Queue: 2 jobs
Job 1
Amino acid sequence: MSAPSADTLDARYYTDPSVYERERLGLMARTWQFAGHESEVARIGDYFTFQVAGESLFCIRGRDGVLRTFYNVCQHRAHQLVEGAGSTRFVICPYHAWTYELSGKLRGGPNLRAVPGFDKNSVCLTAVRTEIFHGFIFVNLDPDAAPMDVWYPGVRDALAEYVPHIATLKPLEWVIIDEACNWKVSIENYSECYHCTINHPTFATGVVRPETYDIRPQEAGFVLRHTTECQSLEAMPYEIDLSVPHAQEYCSYFLWPMFSFQVYPGNVLNTYHWRATGVDSCTVWRGWYTENGWDDDAIRRLAIQDRATTVEEDIRLVESVQRGLRSRGYRPAPLVIDPAFGVNSEHSILKLREWMREAVDG
Ligand code: FES
Ligand SMILES: [Fe+2]
């Protein structure tokens, strides 16, 4: 029996393959998921493939300059259309060479004229809802999904304030991290700093000042907001221009369910995004950005330091938790909810569990 507390979430939510399958077909198919950065598809015909909810998709830049996302499946007999990333004049299926315009319309195919009454205008690749958020491409498999500004009110403006040069940023590198845990374990770990002082000496004595750390759900929408002052601007491995507003602060905007914008002191943008790969595995990407994607030793050093410290420390935590959730000896206990909020409160876990439970149980 689990403890009779409103904040508990049974271990099966993290270990049961049928719960994961429900999330994949439900939650992941009707929420905004990160696809990539606009600069990766800057020119006409540029494309890249990616996976959401077990579906292969691709983003491609049209002749009209519009960025579109399609399911990566030919409408003839369902062969996959493209792989990896590249640039092309038309999308040509490798199976029987049906050819599509960059807009998704069928352009032609071998011997199609022999089919009486065949109307090629009736065939088009299946499009997926796509939004650009400060250059970051998000998709939603639900054609009726509310726009991102409804899901995440105020975040677009807040980011522009914290990262005034955001429009000039391009990815410098992606750090890819495989974690042997359910995606929700990783997200919950990301969303509290109750564990930081004991487990993240570098983060907690440099990037953030634990006494000022606060993570709480935004009043509206599906956003968790982290704010804190920087503990030690001198400990940051790069120059900080204090004349820029918010240069001394750290903040993070977590967009339910699997993306987060983080701003390090000095207005340095970096991101997290997660992809669930099974009930007990997920992959996390740390994105680091510079103006025009120009090389920057300091940012590369920061990415290396982050991978070697905070990321490594978190992997050990989340993988241990996943093992523990499979233990017969685990009984869920109440969360630590401090009415005064602060670094040692788990308010955001409570909110996440509400969203998680709703996603599975409706
Ligand atoms: S499946 Fe694509 S052309 Fe036949
Ligand atoms: Fe952590």
Job 2
Amino acid sequence: MVSDSGGHDAAGTLEALASPALDPLFWPQARTAVPSAWHGHVPFAQWLVAAARPGLIVELGTHNAVSYSAFCETVLRERLPSRCYAVDSWAGDEHAGLYGEAIYTELRAFHDARYGAFSELLRMTFDEARAVIPDDAVDLLHIDGFHSYDAVQHDFQGWASKLSPRAVVLFHDTNVLEPGFGVARFWAEIRGRYPSFEFLHGHGLGVLAVGGEAPAAVLTLCGLSDPSATAILRDRFASIARTHVLEFAMREALRQQEQALQGEMGGLRQSLNASQQARAAAESRLLVQEHTIGTLEESLREAQEKARELEAGRVEDRLENRRQQAALEARIAALGDQAVEVDALRGHLAAARADAKAARGQAPPLPGDATMAATGTIALTAPGAWAWTSPLNGLRRRPSRH
Ligand SMILES: C[S@@+](CC[C@H](N)C(=O)[O-])C[C@H]1O[C@@H](n2cnc3c(N)ncnc32)[C@H](O)[C@@H]1O
């Protein structure tokens, strides 16, 4: 619209920008913190549900539920009488990657608290879920399972009978041309058979108005023939969604930073623990060494005490030896003296014998001479022998030493 002054109608722009009809484009998204290639399409999904007001929504491939929460959030905020079903094995696949139970556990808690009144998580295969959903009932089907050509074709054809006359089908990853991804090829085949529109950002999202009575707003979108209008709409939806993409990217960067810091802190804590343990070990080694030193010092004291006692004993022994040696020497000297006395006695005895012999020659025979004659010796014990031995008694007196 052009204003009277020839410029754009600024007031009209403001009015349009403030329109409650735009609300779904600007609602904050519910699942900002979980990874998904779907963050870039959240505003469109919210607009679509608000505009199409689908009675039954089914999603094939939910994982962290970024797309599914965009549908449910609108049902919640707009108080729509919709029923919603999310189908997934919550085990992952070759393209999404195989993931653990934590994804489902976290989602189940979030989902039940926020959307439990009108939505169900069907943990099963897409084929199994067909038995749960009635035919001709699904107004909005989102196909976002395994992305091979065969899988997408199988999902679309398998669920065709479930689609209502108002049905709109969304295909994610229409703009992924990597090997193994076949959505682009399938989309190229199908988009001409029904009214369609394709967003190119966020891996590509195809909108297919399959039902003959598809909502007017969807048909308007799919009916755009002006390439510049198509480009503008693509760009604006992508721009609005950029806040979600950036918010997730920022959160993810923060999460990774926090994880790295926690890893670093873990490492630091480990080295702190290790050095505290090493210190404790060194302290206990020190205690053991101090104890050993104490024991050694005690043993040393005892050994020195024993050495002192032994030394004292040896001194005493030496003194005793010396005493005994002195006694022996004295005894030897005494024996020497006695030997001298004995020699002297022998001399006296020999002299006495000689005297006696001489006297015998002059004197009459004495009693006992017969004995002496027979034995050749004097019987000193015979009566009267004292007269012969008395000179010997005088000799037994110790001679004085000179
Ligand atoms: C690309 S992810 C879905 C992404 C999700 N729409 C989002 O908003 O992020 C694909 C999911 O489909 C599931 N899936 C693939 N083939 C399936 C099948 N035949 N039956 C059940 N689940 C399937 C996988 O477990 C995976 O979680």
